Amino acid sequence: MDLVEWWRTAVIYQIYPRSFADSDGDGVGDLPGITARLPHLADLGVDAVWLSPFYRSPMVDGGYDVADYRDVDPVFGTLADFDALLAEAHRLRLRVIVDIVPNHTSSSHPWFVSGLRDRYVFAPGRGDAPPNDWQSLFGGPAWTRMPDQSWYLHLFDPGQPDLNWDNPDVRDEFEDILRFWLDRGVDGFRVDVAHGLVKPDFSEISVFDQDGVHEIYRGWRKILDSYPGQRMAVAEVFDTEPARVARYVAADELHQAFNFDFLEAPWEPETLRRIIDASIAAAAQVGAPPTWVLSNHDRRRHVTRFGGGPAGQRRARAAALLMLGLPGSAYLYQGEELGLPEVLDLPAAARTDPQWLRSGGAELGRDGCRVPLPWEGDAPPFGFGPGGRSWLPMPPDWAGRTAAAQRADPDSMLNLYRAALRQRRPAAALTWLAAPDGVLRFETDGGLLVTANLGDSPHPLPARPLLASSPVDATLPPDTTVWLRAG
Ligand code: GLC
Questions:
Q1: Which domains does the chain have, with CATH numbers?
Q2: Which residues belong to the active site?
Q3: What is the pLDDT of residues 75-113, one digit of tens each?
Q4: pTM for the full model?
């Protein structure tokens, strides 16, 4: 397998711009804030960053409701700030991929505002009922009625009308948007809701993953390939089985897809092994690299999923070494290198996520994984910005979790990630080795031997590891992963 293309083995760090670093003191992260903190990422040792949307937006869904795909929202800065970020990232040898949101625009997008209805999905209702029973992923019907009684489709918030990809104007527009950012020098794209663009007949129950989407990505691949360097795209395709996800990463389509099965897996050896095998097999069928991810801006942070507290931290450390030892490419979500937990006790008044708002508070939503990052100091906002504010309140007890505090502590989560990224061996394949119950043990063609103890009892450890997620002696304790040189 050709390991030369950077994205085949890259570790890509997701930045959620609102919550990474604030340069101007308004309590919201911004592009100059990111640029100033890029040395943290270079020092961490990642290969690339993925920026969640920073485009002009009313921020109904944190920027995933785009009003202008070719401009930076003033809260995040300017296009010049973007160019400066990109130049500084490239100087630090970090690639940059940006988010593209093609399934829907904002309802403030000029197309929707000026009533270009053939570019959206409008339909007549059934009497007073919506055209069909499709539900919004944020809760409630996926249709909203206009004053003239017609209905428009929104698989997400009413502020995010779905585009009509049968309309060639929509296709042309997005190809042009890709070129706009490629011309500026981006290294690739993260494609939001990549399996949603083409809609089935309204009588169908299942909306996503229609065959027609693939023609769109074949067109996009030609554009990516027409640029110098190795430009790539990663697809967000959720709730879809691995064999279907693999179709998005066929050789003439996109390059990677997120591995939500891995993210959703419990800390349980048989399930993890089954998912690892299925992921590698599905990707291999089309010559794509497998990918791995533990957290992102939509999901409960894994420290908390794995039990929270010291046990959650310990498992998160073991999971990090397991993931970073696997062949292929991995995605990190900002703050996981600091071991941040989900913030579960945000005050209701502070919450902004449409998932929370539309469910009337029945679902906590995603604000708890979007709390701004703690950089330094003893009290909120922990160096997030100069204004003493942050758009979501930060837990007062995060002083020990700041990047500065962790840099000084050899046993911190941050230093575990730094060591892992320094010692990681790019790889394309793995071989499972015999192991006791509860233990996963494999070696990669990159020359790494990974042993993860997910069981309840310690097991003998034959040699001194290169790296261990928790202290080891002659045995490998529960909830611990070690790396050794293979062979
Ligand atoms: C994707 C994004 C999520 C957003 C949704 C609608 O799933 O990751 O944050 O709410 O798309 O754009």
A1: 6-105+168-423 (3.20.20.80), 430-485 (2.60.40.1180)
A2: 192, 236
A3: 999 999 999 999 999 999 999 999 999 999 999 999 999
A4: 0.98
